[in-house]
Amino acid sequence: MDAMRLCALWLPGLTLIRPGAGTGPGDPAVPACSNFSFKSCEECLKNVSCLWCNAKNTCMDYPVRSILPSSSLCPLYDAQWGVCWMNFEAFIIAIAVIAGLILLSIAVCCCYCCYCRRRSRGIPNEEEESLARDREERRMQSFQRKHERKMKQDEIRKKYGLLQDSDHPYSRFENE
């Protein structure tokens, strides 16, 4: 039953994509839409190029040149096209909600993918870990060489009496 309803909704849309396809007023075997006026909605909408107006109880050709029928022709809340159980206004709202949900889901997927990509960058891989270990090793070697140079310089200063006594930094001034 639901498949029948979906087909009834999508089949009229196919005539908008391919004008002239299917049955229409140009086909001599199909009677004009105005012949179904003052009859039932179901009889009118058997032809996908027809629009049923509940307010006027008339069947008319769908205005293909404009996407939506004008309110002078038939108000949207009274117009039916494709199926009799849903008016044109509800059809437009349903399509807008579906399009909005699709756009929202695409936006959520994009944000989620960007978040996952950023999060995966926070976890270092093996190559980054080895680079970090090498960097730390070089830093430690540099610190060790710096310490050795300082020790040699202190020995030279001590040898020539230039090393200040760390206990009395102002002892030189007392002797003068």
Protein model, in words:
With 176 residues, the protein is mostly helical. The chain contains five helices and three strands; from the N terminus they run ααβββααα. The longest helix has 35 residues, at 88-122. It is rod-shaped.
Q: Identify the overall geometry.
A: rod-shaped
Percent in strands: 5-15%
| Unreliable parts | 1-8, 14-25
How do the strands of the widest beta sheet line up side by side? 2-1-3
Number of helices: 5
Radius of gyration: 42 Å
Estimated structural class:
mainly alpha
- N to C succession of SSEs: HHEEEHHH
Write the layout of secondary structure elements.
Elements: H1 2-17, H2 41-44, E1 50-53, E2 58-61, E3 79-80, H3 88-122, H4 126-159, H5 171-175
Antiparallel strand pairs: 1-2, 1-3
